[in-house]
Amino acid sequence: MIGIVDYKMGNLGSVFNAFVKVGAKAELVSDPDKLAAYDRVTLPGVGAFPDAMAHLHQSGMAEAIKQFAHTGKPLMGTCLGMQLLFDSSTEFGDHAGLGLIPGKVVAFDESKFDHKLKVPHMGWNEMFQIRNEKLEIRNGLFNRLPEEFYLYFVHSFHAICDDKYTIGKTYYGYEFVSAVQNDNIYGIQPHPEKSHENGLKIIENFVNL
């Protein structure tokens, strides 16, 4: 059973429907006391980092997510949900995240763009798989996908972290980290639920981890 964290931020209906489409049993969960009962948990999200962290703390879900992560069962954050997994973000000030993946979230540095681009980064773009020998045993998130494949992005901030946590990168003005893994904890910057067949493969792979 898949638990979809409901903290009032995100397109939860689309996420739920995507899991159902790949044949998974999924439920929206807003009670932190029930999170530990699920086999896998996904943390979606749309909106601002500080608002999301405030909701997670107020509901008690922040601590529940951390406890779930320590069980060794698969946990996946997508879009804003991926960013929340990191230590901190500079969105609207400096704010602490869940601290499950070492690193921070920063705004796109438009001074590094090789030509004029719009922020937010929105639309289809390529994910480049990064082969990480340390994570190879656990990394099944991109099974049945090519080395480079397209997914749908909507974001103005991106993660910065050590290469040892990086399993995917994307180019938008410059190269940035777009997928991460820390043992049983996974993060995907694009929206799998909006990414058609490639996104559904990622969701199905997560279910089968």
List keywords for this structure.
209 residues; alpha/beta; Rossmann fold; nine-stranded mixed β-sheet; four-stranded mixed β-sheet; globular
In short:
Helix content is 22%, strand content 33%.
Account of the protein in words:
With 209 residues, this protein is an alpha/beta fold. It has a single domain, classed as Class I glutamine amidotransferase (GATase) domain (Rossmann fold, 3-Layer(aba) Sandwich). It is built from five helices and 13 strands. The strands form two sheets. A nine-stranded mixed beta sheet has the order 2-1-3-4-13-12-11-8-9, sandwiched between helices. The chain has a four-stranded mixed beta sheet with strand order 6-5-7-10. A hairpin with a 1-residue loop joins strand 11 and strand 12 (174-182). The longest helix has 12 residues, at 196-207. The radius of gyration is 16 Å and the shape is globular. The two termini are 13 Å apart. The mean pLDDT is 94.
